[in-house]
Amino acid sequence: MSKNFDVVVIGGGPGGYVAAIRAAQLGFSVACIDEWKDGKGGPALGGTCTNIGCIPSKALLQSSEHYEHAGHTFAEHGIDVKGLSLNLDQMQKRKANIVKQNNDGVLYLFKKNKVSFFHGRGSFAAADANGYQIKVTGAAEDTIGAKHVIVATGSNARPLPGADFDEKLILSNDGALAVGAVPKKLGVIGAGVIGLEMGSVWRRLGADVIVLEALPVFLGAVDQQIAKEAHKLFTKQGLAISLGVKINAVTAGKKDVTVEYTDDKGTAQTAVFDKLIVSIGRVPNTIGLSGEAVGLKLDERGFVAVDADCKTNLPNVWAIGDVVRGPMLAHKAEEEGVAVAERIAGQHGHVNFNTIPWVIYTSPEISWVGQTEQQLKEQGVAYKVGTFPFMANGRARALGDTSGMVKFLADANSDEILGVHIVGPMASELIAEAVVAMEFRASSEDIARICHAHPSLSEATKEAALAVDKRSLNF
Predict the structure, then answer these.
(1) Is 3.30.390.30 the CATH classification of the domain at 355-468?
(2) Residue from 66, 72, 350, 454 carrying the catalytic annotation
(3) Where is the FAD/NAD(P)-binding domain (predicted)?
(4) Does residue 231 have an active-site annotation?
């Protein structure tokens, strides 16, 4: 055994690396083990989020949005573009550079905070009197000791039965981000966050995109007024979305993929795609963790079983992020990572699952926090609603993006904000105000009384809060 640490974190994604840094800040000796590799075999810290998830997808979404604006909306601004062409290689190079900057940034933060980094796969070897022996399998094998272990091994894309990912024709989020040429016809199975974001990227760049979704409603977890507005806008853009679909067979040929499915009317359909993105959810990643070596308990769905404080069934073993219950969101993992580090130090780490924001980075963006209108109805909660459309917002008009709305849900008696839902420009940024408000248990009246800068998109938030009491000023 080469060295003993107070805390060993297995996994260097958003949850893992943040947990390691916070633990180091609290005075612990800390090691983090991560096996991601860059194109040259070197470390690529940041997990799925940085390497094949949040960061590269946002880079391509931004680039593809610029391309679409140049081709379709610049003229309205008096900007004439002639001979517009797509350099996909450069777009992918830019994405790769952004990923590398984030990878290197985590390595820098480890050095700054004196976190020891081990490049390889971390797994439980044994439990001993001092805690646990953790094996590192990489270019060289090593074993390190840990008083506390934080499992932060993330998740993997869920494959469609009978259609394993080959990342050439049948793509996970990984392959969807690395396509080398714009497909003429692209199929997407699953109208969730990843499916819609990746479908949007390739539609903007020229692909004919068809999205096949099993659920009978669009974005079932989203407030349905917002979801219906988003569906209308996506359809208008040219994203074909079929709901209530049952996939019968997926067959990969030499150059294309055939999907046989039954539509919502019970009619058998066949579609042939140049590429097929499968985005039907993600599964916890416990492959190679060797939890059985120490008796680590998994739940019935394969997640590491934890309590409300992220404690596992083993003493001083914790688990966070996608590998445990709760939403599979990078920022949720980060919050859990900080909370666990603070609990190890005897502090009172805090994560409020009711105020975790969700974002879909399409155009328009969709974001929300708290409860939806359908949830409040199911619970029998008396509530008030206030909405305000971006078409009545001066900054949105100046931007040339007036699609969507802000929606407030407040308790009918106390006026406490129960949920805020946004579809429209910069929704990912606007939702932060709602998160803060709900964390402090603010009322819609509190937001309505706060001065917001003019002209700004945030005024739509104020106006929606005013609308809860039927006193919107600009609509």
Answers:
(1) yes
(2) 454
(3) 5-337
(4) no
